[in-house]
Design goal:
Blueprint lengths: L13 E5 L4 H12 L3 E6 L8 E4 L5 H15 L4 E4 L14 H29 L2 E6 L12 H20 L5 E8 L17 H5 L7 H14 L3 E4 L1 H13 L1 H13 L5
Parallel strand pairs: 1-2, 1-4, 2-3, 4-5, 5-6, 6-7
Helix pairs in contact: 1-6, 2-3, 3-4, 7-8
Length: 262
Amino acid sequence: MLVLSLRLRIHGSSIVITGASSGIGAALAEELARRGARVAAISRRAVSGTAASIQADLGVPEERARAAEEAVRALGRVDVLINNAGVGIYAPSWKTGMDDMRRMFEVNLFAAVELTQRFVPGMVERGQGQVVNIASIASKVTLPWFTLYSASKAALEGFTRGLRMELHGTGVGAMLVCPGYVKTAFQASVLGGHPPPKLAHNKKFASTSEAVAKAVADGMEADKRTVVIPRVAGWGMVAVGGLLPGVMDARLRAMMESAKDE
């Protein structure tokens, strides 16, 4: 087996992006195409301007299998898989219906694992490739109004870290991306509930989809382990959560409880 450098050249690469019809996924498709990649977009809605647009519901295993087969037929090979599709629930974990929770984990975790299993063997055989998993700052700091979403993204983070170690020496890398609040329509498409008002109205540290896409593309080419955006505020939040968990918990509880007063 020929093992190549983990440094990825986006130009000329064939890339699969899930959840590519809007938000971060759409911005990624545009950014990577601009850098010379051939992109196959997998999403529930059609996507224009890509080498292939594959409509599929990634919460359904049979749909995932079909989408993966169509992507290979369209691209010929898959050099990079970007697991971006995700859905959330703004509701207490002890009140959330199991069907909604299973639906969320199917999209946020199981789809990422299954598509990885379908595409990575070919990458390993060729000695080069990359898996990029879009998690969240919530994978590192649990948000109490988003507990089950945080759990699903924490699982995705653990999977990504282990995958990177498993693939060591194969020429295939794995990168974790942890965005904070991003200006997208994500909140409008959750399975239930609403974010705390202070979160919904506070855009001080909000990122744009385009800024996230650029940070991800730069991270891919540099073979970074983890990309956090916004970098300073995001890593600062992670540091406080790790060093002063009681302080962080109190701040987050206050944000959650603000919803009761508004």
